[in-house]
Amino acid sequence: MQNMLKLLMNSRFHLFLSMFMFLLSLNLFLNFFVEIRSWEGYLFLLLSLFFTALSAHLINKNSESEKAKNRNLRFPTKI
Predict the structure, then answer these.
(1) Which pLDDT score is estimated for 59?
(2) What is the distance between the alpha carbons of residues 30 and 60, in angstroms, rounded to a whole number?
(3) pLDDT tens for residues 45-77?
(4) Which of 24, 32, 51, 67 has the lowest tally of Cβ within 10 angstroms?
(5) How many CB atoms lie within 10 A of CB 47?
(6) CA distance 30 to 50
(7) How far apart are CA 19 and CA 57, in angstroms?
(8) Diameter of the chain by CA atoms?
(9) pLDDT level of residue 8 (50, 70, 90 thresholds)
(10) Phi, psi at 38, each rounded to 5°
């Protein structure tokens, strides 16, 4: 529960989550409400899909690094 609160208070998490939600809504808008007739439209759709996947990857990478940091803090290694 404490880790969840730390994650919710993290400003970088809010940035990535807002970016992810914006790009996901942009994808849904392009897929369902815009009739794409040119190659520029398909390029824009592919770019928005790419950036949605990239932001999801960055969110996952950020959470993995936070887990590793917490693990190192709990079990410090002696040199």
Answers:
(1) 72
(2) 25
(3) 778 778 777 777 777 776 666 677 766 666 555
(4) 32
(5) 12
(6) 14
(7) 12
(8) 63
(9) low
(10) -130, 170
- Contact 23/52 with Cβ under 8 angstroms? yes
Does the pLDDT of residue 20 top 60, yes or no? yes
Q: How many CB atoms lie within 10 A of CB 22?
A: 14
For 22, the token pair is 């914006």
Supply the pTM of this predicted model: 0.47
Judge whether 12 and 62 are in contact, CB under 8 Å: yes
**Token pair for 41:** 């439209």
Please report which residue ranges of 1-79 form alpha helices under DSSP H.
2-9, 11-32, 39-74
Q: What's the average model confidence in pLDDT over 38-44?
A: 77
Please name the residue that has the structure tokens 């960055």.
Answer: 58
Query: Hey, is 78 helix, strand or coil?
Result: coil
